[in-house]
Structure formats: structure tokens, C-alpha cells
């Protein structure tokens, strides 16, 4: 049986309007678990970027990767505006996926 994939682009923030991290994954819940438990290392861990503030689901990984690349090229203000268009209070959306609040 093939593994079900749910391609997704996600944005993490250290705090409202704080440091941002943009990533792509085929399993958002697993990836959030990795970020929140320091398994990923790198930028997100170094800057404590664990709050899920936006995510977009895609039908295929190619589309998700193209969107991730597009967002990474955007100016910071455009990224902030994008998050605030759907999440003006910068709520941690991971809580709705079964995760506890972050520090």
C-alpha cells in the first residue's frame, strides 16, 4: 500500500511578526513534531522558530516546492501580509492539529 502524501508549504514564526521559516513537507504533523523536538536542527532550532502561522496544502509535491521557492523570494513585508491575511493574531495553528502550545 503506498504511503499517503499530503504536500504542504508551511510558515513558522518565533513570535508574532518575528523570525520566519518557510518549509515544504509531505507530512506536516511529522515535520512539526521534528521542529518542536529539535530533531531538524538548523535555522528553525537556532532561532526558536516553532509557531505554525500558515500552511497551504497542494495536490502534488512539485506544486508545493514551486510555491515554497516563490515565498522564499518574497520581501519580508509580503510574507507578513500573507500570514496576517488569514491569521491576523498570529495564532499557533499547530494547536488545532493536536500539538500543545510552545513556550
UniProtKB/TrEMBL annotation:
The family database entries (SUPFAM superfamilies) matched by this protein are listed as:
GIY-YIG endonuclease
**One Pfam match:** GIY-YIG
* Annotated InterPro entries: GIY-YIG_endonuc (IPR000305), GIY-YIG_endonuc_sf (IPR035901), UPF0213_domain (IPR050190)
Q: What PROSITE patterns is this protein classified in?
A: GIY_YIG (PS50164)
- Per UniProt, residues of the GIY-YIG domain are 5-82
Task: State the similarity comment.
Answer: Belongs to the UPF0213 family.
Q: What is this protein called?
A: GIY-YIG nuclease family protein
Lineage, highest ranks first = Bacteria, Pseudomonadati, Pseudomonadota, Alphaproteobacteria, Sphingomonadales
Amino acid at each position: 500500500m503506498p504511503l499517503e502524501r499530503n504536500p504542504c508549504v508551511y510558515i513558522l514564526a518565533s513570535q508574532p511578526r518575528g523570525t520566519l521559516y518557510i518549509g515544504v513537507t509531505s507530512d506536516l504533523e511529522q515535520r512539526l513534531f521534528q521542529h518542536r523536538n529539535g530533531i531538524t536542527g538548523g535555522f528553525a532550532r537556532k532561532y526558536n522558530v516553532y509557531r505554525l502561522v500558515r500552511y497551504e496544502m497542494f495536490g502534488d509535491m512539485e506544486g508545493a516546492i514551486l510555491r515554497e521557492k516563490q515565498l522564499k523570494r518574497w520581501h519580508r513585508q509580503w510574507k507578513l501580509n500573507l500570514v496576517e491575511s488569514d491569521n491576523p493574531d498570529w495564532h499557533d495553528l499547530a494547536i488545532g492539529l493536536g500539538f500543545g502550545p510552545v513556550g
